[in-house]
Specification:
Layout lengths: L4 H11 L7 H4 L9 H11 L13 E5 L1 E4 L7 E10 L1 E2 L2 E2 L7 E10 L2 E8 L3 H9 L29 E5 L2 E5 L6 E3 L6 E4 L22 E2 L5 E6 L4 E7 L5 E8 L11 E2 L3 E6 L2 E3 L6 H4 E3 L5 E7 L5 E7 L3 E10 L5 E8 L3 H8 L12 E7 L5 E9 L1 E4 L11 E6 L9 E6 L5 E5 L4 E9 L9 E8 L4 E8 L9 E4 L9 E6 L1
Antiparallel strand pairs: 1-7, 2-33, 3-6, 3-34, 4-5, 6-7, 8-9, 9-10, 10-11, 12-13, 13-14, 14-15, 16-17, 17-20, 18-19, 20-21, 22-23, 23-24, 24-25, 26-27, 27-28, 28-29, 30-31, 31-32, 32-33
Length: 503
């Protein structure tokens, strides 16, 4: 879809922030209230693995962690992580994990020591409900009796999914609204970001969806997208300082209602549309999202300079949350990896977990895909259980030899292993924490900027002791186990994504 600037501005007016609201939020509050809080409490009494999904009532004060082994001196900086933590107020518990208010966790590495603190992202919604002592707004799946009107998506912005550094700030990210600016020193909320501020777009982009998985190019530029409820997709190109350089609006004609991640290569932006549709027979927004085995997965290929679509491919039906990386070969073939599911049960598992239903087998597999210039597609399914894929950040958009990810056994509640795949040989290097741990996203980092001497760091919740730890591995020898591990005397809520910011 080619748009002139005039047409683009007109289209943005039609797309406006208010019209991005999920339909469930436009409707009046229509309980029935199912007592999710009571059901979860009963389930927790019989399955302590659910402690990572308990409600949190207050911030975590600064705490020096107990260190086992050796934390390398070269590791100086902070791992910031984000995830939902405020899940209950009064007698009401949210019905989907994606609805919880975000809490930012900071693990600060200083001269071989590790310090932690956690703080709720004090969005306008969080502050208002905190003062009231109850939920005031309905969420995508949870209907609150006599709820206040939702003016636009940012009215219910929970800033709960990811965090990146932009200039001197942290941006905590949700998928359906603006980034939330946070002070990296105090973790104080400083306001919602107007994406067009200081650019020619002005207030035209205010409140538009900005996904939680932006990609940082080699020169520091930021690429991202936002899915509109109409099926159109805004694609953004920002400078490293967060000032918007270019925006396009792609008519993807996508009605799936959820688009979580995307990819960039040296020349292209890849928007992968999973095989989702929305059912009109279900109440909740997430509840309505269904997998359709008759809908192919589509890959929209955009020119990175113009953000305009240049090609489209079709893949077999599948669902995907996350990708690792994309790059181009000399003949123009575009290569990327994905963690593919055979259906969308993984999305609905995050609802069932809110009432303590843990036994749901939803595993994704690492798949490597090649898009040839002649339109042909090659797919290599590794049969390797995989989620939360990551690469060294400086390799975004260029060929990576190694892909880091989590995996689990079929009967596990959450991930229990961290692995590295050699993308050229398929060889795996793996460390299994064990079934007593709930393992969260692990992040590869390199103080030298190369894969040699890189580390992998990540958090895990040890269920029997109800404590959270952060582990440091040598990236080229995960199987040896962590070279250092730091423990808190208590557990943190399980989160989603984060990034390491060097000191």
């Amino acid at each position: 879809m080619q748009l002139s600037r005039r047409h683009f501005i007109q289209s943005l007016g039609a797309v406006g922030a208010a019209s991005t609201l999920p339909m469930s939020l436009k409707l009046g509050a229509t309980p029935p209230i199912v007592n999710y809080k009571s059901m979860f409490s009963d389930a927790l009494a019989n399955d302590q693995r659910l402690i990572g999904f308990k409600d949190v009532n207050q911030d975590f004060a600064l705490k020096q962690m107990d260190v086992e082994g050796t934390i390398p001196q070269a590791l100086q900086g902070s791992l910031f992580r984000n995830g939902p933590a405020k899940l209950e107020r009064g007698d009401i518990r949210y019905q989907h994990l994606f609805e919880g208010d975000g809490m930012l966790q900071q693990f600060k590495f200083v001269d071989g020591k590790v310090f932690h603190r956690g703080k709720f992202v004090q969005t306008p919604k969080f502050q208002q409900e905190q003062r009231a002592g109850k939920f005031l707004y309905s969420a995508p799946d949870t209907k609150i009796p006599n709820s206040l009107a939702v003016v636009d998506n940012d009215t219910v912005n929970t800033a709960n999914t990811n965090v990146i550094a932009v200039g001197d700030d942290l941006w905590t990210l949700w998928e359906a609204g603006s980034p939330a600016r946070v002070n990296p020193e105090s973790l104080d909320f400083e306001g919602l970001v107007n994406l067009g501020e200081h650019s020619r777009y002005g207030d035209k982009l205010k409140g538009l969806p900005f996904s939680a998985h932006p990609k940082i190019d080699g020169n520091g530029d930021i690429f991202n997208f936002g899915l509109h409820n109409s099926g159109r997709i805004a694609v953004y190109h920002l400078g490293a300082n967060g000032v918007m350089k270019n925006v396009s609006l792609i008519d993807g004609n996508y009605k799936g209602g959820m688009l979580h991640d995307f990819l960039i290569s040296e020349k292209y932006v890849l928007i992968v549309l999973p095989s989702l549709v929305q059912s009109s027979s279900d109440e909740g927004y997430f509840e309505r999202i269904k997998f359709n085995k008759n809908v192919p997965m589509r890959v929209l290929v955009l020119d990175k300079n113009t953000l305009q679509q240049v090609r489209e491919y079709q893949l077999p039906p599948a669902f995907v949350f996350h990708f690792g990386n994309a790059w181009q070969e000399r003949d123009g073939t575009i290569c990327f990896d994905a963690c593919l599911y055979q259906d969308a049960e993984a999305l609905h598992k995050l609802s069932r977990l809110m009432i303590g239903k843990a036994a749901i087998n939803t595993r994704s597999q690492s798949v490597f895909i090649r898009l040839k210039r002649n339109g042909q597609v090659e797919i290599n399914n590794t049969d390797i259980n995989s989620e939360f894929p990551r690469i060294l950040p400086n390799l975004t958009g260029i060929k990576n030899k190694h892909l880091y990810h989590l995996s689990s056994s079929d009967d596990a509640l959450w991930s229990e292993s961290v692995s590295r795949i050699d993308t050229t040989t398929g060889k795996q290097d793996k460390y299994r924490y064990g079934s007593d741990f709930l393992v969260e996203e692990h992040v590869p980092i390199s103080p030298s900027g190369t894969e040699q001497g890189a580390y992998v760091i990540g958090t895990a919740l040890h269920v029997p002791s109800q404590r959270t730890c952060i582990s440091v591995f040598e990236a080229d020898n995960l199987a040896a186990g962590p070279m250092g591990r730091a423990w808190l005397p208590y557990n943190l809520p399980l989160g989603f994504h984060g990034n390491f910011i060097p000191a």
